[in-house]
Amino acid sequence: MTARVSIEEMNRIAREEVPLVGNMGIAFTTIEDGFAVARLPFRDDLLRPGGTITGPAMMGVADVVLYACVLSRIGIVKLAVTTSLNVNFLRRPQPGDLVAEGRLIKCGKRLAYGEVTLAAADALGDPVCHVTGTYSIPPDR
Amino acid sequence: MTARVSIEEMNRIAREEVPLVGNMGIAFTTIEDGFAVARLPFRDDLLRPGGTITGPAMMGVADVVLYACVLSRIGIVKLAVTTSLNVNFLRRPQPGDLVAEGRLIKCGKRLAYGEVTLAAADALGDPVCHVTGTYSIPPDR
Amino acid sequence: MTARVSIEEMNRIAREEVPLVGNMGIAFTTIEDGFAVARLPFRDDLLRPGGTITGPAMMGVADVVLYACVLSRIGIVKLAVTTSLNVNFLRRPQPGDLVAEGRLIKCGKRLAYGEVTLAAADALGDPVCHVTGTYSIPPDR
Amino acid sequence: MTARVSIEEMNRIAREEVPLVGNMGIAFTTIEDGFAVARLPFRDDLLRPGGTITGPAMMGVADVVLYACVLSRIGIVKLAVTTSLNVNFLRRPQPGDLVAEGRLIKCGKRLAYGEVTLAAADALGDPVCHVTGTYSIPPDR
Asked: What pLDDT does residue B140 have?
């Protein structure tokens, strides 16, 4: 199946409609049906004490990447909303770009569930953060 | 016991050292031993499609409020880091200030665990988001 | 409000309809609206390597206590089902009875969300396990 | 790398040392380094109201499969203990055997993190439950 949202549409949605995350500079690089990859370019204000990238930056990216996975399957249903996210921080990411790869594990009529793995752009095999989450799909889309 | 971090210190830490969240305007109003309350003033860029407050804003606030709970117990050990957060979104928060109240459930030598409840400032009895999380405490503090 | 399920009904439901947990010997001691307490009597087969009580015993009890909280609010709607549980093990429980106390944090039309805290019966102030979970409520109850 | 625990050893550990889950009849079928698969044969006492398999059965199996993944990497360190499990129930499993497949996502010195996917034995592509969890590894192993 083809993705029902394009990279261009998803970058615009992130930038214009989820500005808190869009303004961090997130850029999608791949969107397929139930699958999405985005890159978060490094910026100084993403750091936290200790000089590693702050958790909320990773959580924001993961949430929007999962949103892209959902929209890639059901089309641009903007009122799909997160109902839960479970976030596990596995390593402290050093300053540098991050890559987040998400995929749907299940997509029913009312709920979609998936996972997102984040890694440093130059060490994709060593995840720094793993997220699972559920989106609620509105009945009247 | 007295809190080992003050409101002033915690506001400064949020603003200067976790700028991604500090720049959202989070302001602590209460810090006691193992307990912290902060307010997130409403701003337009906190919205998401549908006109409600975006999840990443709430997650960022919850993470920093839990950080304050940990520092209130162990002192300013900045290298305490989140290892996991579980976030449940209970209602879509309408535009307006949010209040986040956190408390430690357990604080051991290596791990601290607590919960944060977020609600609209004018409807504190109806939580919009509930978060539990674990912080790892460095051994050599 | 009064609880819409009684201690006797809930003990019978656990024993006859969720035998995997009921057969562990769980016994409810308090049920109020949106609130339930149960005791798990110690038995040797609840142990795991190291001589502490096994996680799955605590998870099973937490799930049924949360079920009781939901039924106490909406009445005996047996098809209410768990959609997610987040379980945090805080201490290794020594051999002995456990007490699990649950409460609803939110109960909407479709979803209920609550938390359960487990502790040794002789050290209720030191939780050994903290659980949050979501139940889905069938639309046609 | 070779798995550091065998199928026979793991079946014995489940049966003798985690009897609550072992007695449900769990049987490992594959163990590789950081990877394990087990089958849970159907039994009537695994049902819950509505005639589907109860959540605690799936949580118990997931916990032991993740334990096997950890032991397959670090060897038989029985005091490795679960610190958190996040469980998402995706479909109501009809009566029948379940298969649980686990894999490590990260294994550090102190913490291991992985995921387990459960499905009906005759519909492996449609997961019924997805679990992520963290094990704590004792320092003095």
From this structure: 75
Contacts of A133 (CB under 8 A, 6+ apart): A62, A63, A66, A82, A84, A85, A86, A113, A114, A115, A116
- Token code pair at residue C39: 């005791």
- What is the per-residue pLDDT for B81? 96
Instruction: Write the CATH number for B71.
Output: 3.10.129.10
Whether the complex's predicted ipTM surpasses the cut of 0.90: yes
pLDDT in tens, D54-103: 999 999 999 999 999 999 999 999 999 999 999 999 999 999 999 999 99
Residue B45 vs residues A15, B49, B54, B95, B129: alpha-carbon distances, Å: 11, 11, 9, 11, 19
Residue A95 lies inside a defined structural domain of this protein: yes
Q: Helices then strands (H, E): number in chain C?
A: 3, 8
Asked, for residue D81, whether it belongs to a domain, the answer is yes
Which residue in A86, A108, A134 is closest to D132 by CB distance?
A86
Nearest 5°: the CA angle A57, A63, A68 is 125
Residue range(s) defining the domain that contains residue C73: 7-136
C57 touches chain D (CB under 8 A): yes
Global confidence as pTM: 0.97
Provide the 8-state DSSP code for B137: P
A141 in any annotated domain: no
Chain D contacts of C45, Cβ < 8 Å? 19-20, 23
- Residue count of chain B, please give it: 141
Total domains present in chain D? 1
Structure tokens belonging to residue B9: 């210190």
Using one digit for the tens of pLDDT, what is the confidence trace for D9-62?
999 999 999 999 999 999 999 999 999 999 999 999 999 999 999 999 999 999
* B134 contacts on D by Cβ (under 8 Å): 83-84
Asked if residues B125 and B118 have their Cβ atoms less than 8 Å apart, the reply is no
Please report whether residue C33 resides in a domain.
yes
Q: What is the enclosing helix (H) or strand (E) of D66?
A: helix D55-74
